[in-house]
Please model this.
Amino acid sequence: MNLPDLLTDYTLRNVALGSALLGVTGGVIGAFTMLRRQSLLGDALAHAALPGVCLAFLLTGSKAPLWLLLGGGLSGWLGALAVLGVLKYTRLSEDAALGTVLSGFFGFGITLLTLIAGSGDANQAGLDKFLFGQAATIVAGDVAVMAVMAALGLGLVALLFKEFKLLTFDPTYAHTLGFPTGRLGTLLTSLAVVAVMIGLQTVGVVLMAAMLIAPAAAARQWTDDLRRLLLLSGGFGALSGVLGALISATQANLPTGPVIILVASGVLLVSVFFAPRRGLLWAKFASRRRGRVLREAMVRGVRP
Model:
């Protein structure tokens, strides 16, 4: 597939647009979760969305994406509140809280999915695709829903950029200034749920965490400035989504969601090795250069 195909093919265009929206939103919001050292939160939220998808199907009897995404979003949000509640009222560490919620919600979701599969309801066919995504089923209406959710998430980030920045880097100082750090933290977590909702149909609950982590981690290798980090992270996410959609379209049985994650992982690897200052090869080159300069200085110093 090439650019003309992207512009003219209905299915590919929708998949590419949906993947790009996921990449931008996941990249920007994932940057905050990464900087707050909550990268695993995205994994917990994505897995916590599965029982909501199943319950939405059981209650409505429909596989309409809007209802399933709303169910998944509500379930993911409840999972986030569960994590925050465990951290607040127990002595469990953050990783233990995340692991407990992730396992509990995901186990409940798999149980519901198994029950639905054995119910004999012919309409349930394909519901398990939410595990790894079903990008090929995205239509123009789904893209419109994704665009609204992306606009909501990115709009709130733009509106509350200064507050989120202060909360991310110095929450104690933000609290002393009178900012509602608790509510701001909950809002940031809720925005991660929005990103998960966008990604459920594209990459699924199992792979969604990568779209919150990989673009942000790649962008972090290139800059120390938050604004540039957000722009790069969103750009890397969008690039991964579109390239993944194009590559998967070249083969009939190549799944779009996993390919998008592979592209995002490739972007991260390139950044880790080749980014200026932080890249491994750059650091090795700089180390050799410093050693050479030091040796030359020592030679000049012993000359008469």
